[in-house]
Design brief:
The chain is an alpha+beta fold. The chain has 16 helices and 19 strands.
């Protein structure tokens, strides 16, 4: 029997959320085959099976958050008979769910009587039909007004049919709330793992739908006398019902963890940012000359980022305090230069680490950056690839930003922000020239790094980039 544990996805990570099981109890799994997905503030990825065998027991359900090294499942390398015990449990729950729906059907038929009760007032309306002279006009109005009502019914019916069953299993509490309030669960958007509908989703749906439902019954009594006007008064509320002014959606696990990590960093470090303008003309010309050959030889583009990483590594070697970290009152100097590269995802941000960045040339750095970014977006990063960073770089210039003030990635003491590279008119030797200019911003922890040292570091980065002479190929 092999225990499957919650891995540690970063130095500062103490817990993770299991978002999805990729295998079910009783299914066979091979070694290194994806077994489940987890989400933390540093990574949202698949975790492989530590050994080959049968998933005999699941100890942590989808959506639960547990500490690192917590046993989440067990693998039986010999096959085992534990899986049948796990299967009946859900079955009993299903029977319990099926048993409860049986009593509710009788109350549902009781709901239709109110519908016929609405037509009953209609016979009471004919008495006011004494004004016989204008009978031709009312029929025309009645013929026009009933028309939109069926159209709305026809539009909503296909929508309900298309929605079919909601995604993910439903808890007994969710089903009970749906029955009590006569809710079509296909109209409720689930926020749980795999789109599962939770109690909060149902309550939010009720809160959004409560106003329109209350407004419709109140309308008929106000226009009970003129029967034709009653449907007209009921129809307008239906339009704004689908145009809510607000939408409530819970934050994802990754977003919550990012928020916690950013607040922790701001509370921990004394953030200061210094911004330097760098002339990237030599690098830009080299890149322009070699980018087609680079693409043909290696299958990926040559960007500005590896040049900036290379220059940063040279500066970190000269000023090792920016490659250090703080542990209480102690300074930890790191002999390795491991550079974290921020990668934007659809639902957050992740910082995979280029290890031994000082041992790689521009080609090696570009290859490592492309590989890590691709696997980050496909959720294929390994736990050790998002930890151990000693310095971070974030390239917001790829989205057109000129300059920014990034937040330090704890427990590091500095992070470099890279703005976009633009052709800009500048003064060179008392003459106006067009140069490729980039703004680099260094955010540093003033508890350990002073402004003078930070500017010296940036001066070294600028000097390497502006006088670039290293061959790329």
């Amino acid at each position: 029997m092999t225990d499957v544990v919650m891995p540690q996805m970063g130095e500062s990570i103490v817990e993770g959320t299991l978002t999805k099981w990729l295998k079910k109890p009783g299914e066979r799994v091979e070694r290194d085959e994806p077994l489940f997905e987890i989400s933390t503030d540093k990574v949202d990825t698949e975790i492989p099976a530590p050994a080959a065998g049968t998933l005999s027991e699941v100890l942590v359900q989808e959506g639960e958050t547990v500490g690192i090294n917590t046993v989440v499942a067990r693998l039986d390398e010999g096959g085992g008979d534990a899986q049948p015990a796990a299967v009946p449990k859900p079955a009993k729950g299903a029977e319990a769910k099926a048993a409860k729906p049986a009593p509710p059907p009788p109350p549902e038929p009781a709901a239709p009587p109110p519908a016929p009760a609405a037509p009953t007032p209609e016979p009471a309306a004919p008495p006011p039909a004494k004004p016989a002279p204008p009978p031709p006009e009312p029929p025309a109005q009645e013929a026009i007004q009933p028309a939109p009502a069926p159209e709305q019914v026809e539009d909503t019916a296909p929508a309900a049919e298309a929605a079919s069953e909601p995604a993910g299993p439903l808890s007994p509490l969710v089903r009970k709330l749906a029955r009590e309030h006569d809710i079509d669960l296909s109209r409720v958007k689930g926020s749980g793992a795999g789109g599962r509908i939770t109690r909060q989703d149902v309550e939010s749906y009720l809160a959004q739908q409560g106003t329109p439902q209350g407004a419709q019954p109140a309308a008929p009594p106000a226009t009970a006398a003129p029967q034709p006007a009653a449907p007209a008064a009921q129809q307008p509320p239906l339009a704004p019902a689908g145009q809510a002014r607000t939408r409530i959606e819970p934050m994802s696990t990754m977003r919550l963890k990012i928020a916690e990590h950013m607040l922790l960093s701001k509370r921990t470090s004394a953030h200061v940012t210094t911004i330097h303008r760098v002339d990237m003309t030599k690098v830009a010309r080299l890149r322009e000359r070699l980018k087609e050959q680079f693409q043909a030889n290696y299958g990926f583009s040559l960007t500005y980022l590896p040049f900036i990483v290379r220059a940063s590594v040279a500066a970190l070697r000269q000023f090792p305090l920016l490659n250090a970290s703080l542990d209480g009152n102690n300074i930890i100097y790191h002999n390795e230069v491991n550079v974290g590269i921020a990668v934007a995802l659809e639902n957050g941000l992740i910082v995979p680490v280029v290890r031994a960045a000082d041992e790689k040339n521009v080609l090696g750095l570009q290859r490592a950056i492309v590989d890590l970014a691709a696997r980050a977006r496909s959720r294929q990063l390994k736990p050790d690839e998002v930890q151990g960073g000693t310095f971070s770089i974030t390239n917001f210039g790829s989205f057109g930003s000129l300059v920014g003030t990034p937040i330090i990635n704890q427990p590091q003491v500095a992070i470099l922000g890279v703005g976009t590279v633009d052709k800009t008119p500048v003064v060179v030797d008392d003459a106006i020239a067009i140069r490729s200019i980039c703004h680099l911003s260094l955010t540093f922890d003033h508890r350990l790094v002073d402004g003078a040292l930070a500017d010296q570091f940036m001066g070294k980065v600028r000097q390497v980039l502006e006088s670039w002479s290293e061959e790329v190929l």
